[in-house]
Structures
1.
Amino acid sequence: MYTFDSRIRYSETDSQGKLTMASLINYFQDSSTFHSEDLGLGLGYLHKRHLVWVLSSWQIVVNRYPRLCEHVTIGTQPYDMKGFLGYRNFAMMGEDGSYAAVANSIWSLLDTRTGKPCMVPREMVEGYCLGEKLSMAYAPRKIAVLPGGAEYAPIPVKKHHLDTNQHVNNQQFIDIAMDYLPEDFGIGQMRAEYKKQAYLEDVLKPYVAVGDNVVYVALRDEAGAPYVSVEFSGGSSRE
């Protein structure tokens, strides 16, 4: 597993001095970026070949949220590549080596000239040196719509939502969805299913439904088709 060490910063914490889900996602996203860049398979490699990895789904399970100034280790490991799909685990560990959080993700490799999926090159599969699948309770990629919800005011996509691919970054979608969580809702698991990319000046229409210890948020386009569906399950206390 590829790892790097860090320390929880004040800018990454909530009002209780604990790491936020959005910051956890950024750590995971940064670890995969560092890993790819260190292997020579990063942004430059992809740009030269007109390729881009687009996130298809997240499953993040939180055992606890590290506190301000805590030393942590963040790790990531690709464990499979099939056709145009890549599968990658993530973990955040405390100083004692225990898992604060673990995650699974599925990515699609696209041709930037056509926008269509393309096969993962052999040199990429060999370069990543696929490892063992992390031990965790894997959930399905598909997220069912929770009925009985309500629609909220539309949100226009602004420049600060975009990443180097010029579309809304996956973490930004989750950050927006979290605004609709009930007060003091402790996220034990977050699942996200990404349907399509959103670009500058697109409009996100939130649909929110609350169930038994679960909150479902869909950010939809103006025709009602989802950009992303997110499911938050209660579990980890923010106290």
Note: The mean pLDDT is 93.
2.
Amino acid sequence: MPKAIKHLLSTFAGMTLLLSGASQADEKNLPEVFQGYDRSSTYEINYDDYTYLLRASVLNAGRSSRAIAKSGKAKTGTRLKANINKLTALEGNRFLYESFEKDEHKKHFRNISESLQKVPSEVPLKLFSKDEQLAYWLNLYNATIIAEIIDEYPIRKLEDFITDSDSPLDEKIITVAGEKLSLNDIKYKIVPEKFGYKPVLIYGFYQGIIAGPNILNRAFTGETVWDELDRNATNFVNSNRGTFADTKKKIFRVSSLYERDEVYFPNFDEDLNRHILQYLEGSLRYDLENAKRVRTNISNWKIADVYGTERQFGGAIANNNAALMDSASRADQNLDRDSSGYGNINLTVTSSFMEQRAINFGRFSPEMVTKLKTIHAEHLSHSGQVSITDIESESEEDKSDEGSN
């Protein structure tokens, strides 16, 4: 396990959930401002600006064909060879990091992150449903990590960025309701404590690498968040990034992501096997069930850009990226709601749009803010409390927990 995560877990060593290996949420371990939810709430946070940016930036590759990339042989005009991971080189959605090198474009995702951080200052999170809160935390995490990676770009590999003991993921760069948080705080403390240590949650956290869960080309919403997580889990498990069978040696390989996120698998071997089988399709189910060993050693730390960090090589890597884009184009024709519209990407137009809307984007209409604050004040009046943290203290799980993983 990476040093950064070990350090983080030691910080949370007193948590009864971790000690017991339970999978249920116990948000009492969280700051009070993050506790509580309104089961009946129909209020939603607006992410139109974030979705607009994602649709302009994400190249959707569709379901994996499990194709193996060609070797990086040099072609005429160059003696340079691309050192690629053939198993996973054609896998996963790509993000156009190479289009965010100008300062005028770099700020967009940072503005989204800063805007989302202000949401609980406008309206307490506990006035929203549990699903709406989950969508909020995933969107905040992903917008922020994209902004951080954009600041680092061009960078070829992100292993140190993700796993170092002084990883940027451990820096307290986020402030929500007065609480300073790191990205790892969100992933390993807030989300699992609030929503349970459900393995499907790990597919909502984008890592910026080829062999990680896909970044979607739209924001999570409370209405769709669990379906999106299931879809992302299915896509990941049924790809070379997630699983691969070495039938000759009877070794079943799975992503190193699972080892890094082992806190979501209290009884690691048993829980991981059960989780993979829940989503795995086809003949690989037989391969897993009959494998002599399962090894968590599938990795590809290369940044999930389209061509920017490989353009100097030409040759096979150029062909591989062309193959990826062709695949994505075909996927777009079949998946209208996932269509990234690669040919329509225009960050100049996007920049103009974001100048008008992203920086001071209203997540709520004035009427909604007034109504929510009125409801909040009324509750405080009836409860005789003056703390904004004394909202509903339901002990039973939200309906979303019943159907989630």
Note: The mean pLDDT is 80.
3.
Amino acid sequence: MKKISMLSFILVFALLLAACGCAIAENAPLNDVPCQTVTLAEDDPDYFKELWAAELYNYKMIRNFTTMYEEAGWDAYRDKCVNLDRMDPEALTEEDQQVILNAKAAREALVQLIPYDEEVLLIWGEDMPVLTEDVESQFTAESQDNADFRPFLIPYLMDDPSQAKGNLILISGGGNYLRGTEAQDVAPVFVELGYNCFLLHRRVAPYGPDEIAMDLQRAIRYVKYHGEAWGLGGLDVVGAAGFSGGGGNVCTVIEKYYGDITPDQFDPDYVCDEIDAVNSDMQIAMPIYSARALETENPNIPHLFIAVGEADNFEGSIAMFQWAQGLGLHPELHIFGNVVHGFGPGTVGTSSTTWTEAADLYIQHNLLKMEKYETIPEEYTLKQTVLVTWFPKDVGDVPVDVYVNSDHSKFFLSFYSWGDDIQVEGILVGDNVAGVTFDSVGFFTEDAPKMWALTDPNAWTPVK
């Protein structure tokens, strides 16, 4: 993507300077974030008032860039700035002034790792649909964003983005008033599972829910429009996972902002561009602790993966599941016991930590239709057969061929049941099943460890 081309440009530019006999600073630090500065002298009566405004502006911007800076410095900067929005700029105390100076020093000490235009993919062009009247005047010091905030995506890409199963837009919770942090914790998990992810920093209050939903619709179109040029694979599977309020935005897009619907139908002053001509339908939607039944004329409801905690309000999740079933779709609903709202990638010690793997299998089964292996992969050199006795009575007992590789780091299951040849592949840690990486029908994630437990460590025979 842009990262490669920009770094290549920097390298070529440095070589040209060297060839011309020009001096260039070694390891020159990146510093291209458009921060505000103050030109007044420190003894000017308005210095600290202006410095407060500048550093509050900078903090509201920089706190969005969770992967742009070296982590320890970013954490320290955030800690120095948390009280800036509570100050009265007309009555700054000496203690306040020191806090402002500390914030400035912490910002200047940040070590930037990624160029701004690679971390921040602005999704709107020169124009942006706005429905809230006189919205800029409604921003305050306590608002999540600065008045000139523009929605953007932060990319989390696979090492080889062309090999992705699909592309997911992730939206943190926080209602429509602020942006939480779940998405940045979940994105690396889905990257490991084989997806390119894009973290959406949507608008929040004082903007309204329709404007916020249009940010997600635009993000879907933005990824589809640029995907081929960026070298993204899996562009036939584009979807969104939203948490709490972010999931509410996902629901609103399914309900109201889908297909060929464009922003100018709601904001007549908005001028559509070529990106708005891209179809905004999703193939997969994942409302996480945020689902609800919908009323919509959308003819292309995406596949729905729904997850919620049992200690949360799950009525809306059940309602969406039943609504989708009534349309003849095949949604999937997970209600995790003893789990409250806001579990993000999963609450440690509970089954909610498995939801991302379950979502991956759901996508594979319903969208990717992964092809089965024609033969058992050669890496599996040992085999034994076990008998599974817990399937339904109409299925009966089923012999399962179990294969393992030489170092017992991977396993492979092959059996015939329900009128189908079924294959399951996964990872072993300490000779126990640590996870399923391939399930040809999508139903055996929980059965795989039980099947493996039936194996006899003394019964392995070489594969002929």
Note: Residues 1-26 have pLDDT under 50 and may be disordered.
